[in-house]
Design brief:
79% helix, 62 residues, mainly alpha, single chain
């Protein structure tokens, strides 16, 4: 079972901040932003799945 700890959550937040920073800069090629989204999307999806599972554990325990 894959577990997500504080380090992984910090990586998700830093990757998201980097993506927003690059998207707001005018000097960055839009293609680079698209490539970053493609590369980071599995990690973002895993983070969302983790938080959704944590919320479901709280409100609908097995």
């Amino acid at each position: 079972m894959l577990t997500i700890g504080p380090v992984e959550i910090l990586v998700f937040l830093l990757a998201g901040a980097l993506l927003v920073f690059l998207a707001t800069r005018k000097r960055v090629d839009p293609l680079m932003v698209v490539l970053l989204v493609i590369v980071l999307s599995p990690f973002v999806a895993m983070g969302l799945a983790f938080f959704t599972g944590a919320i479901l554990d709280v409100f609908a325990p097995a």
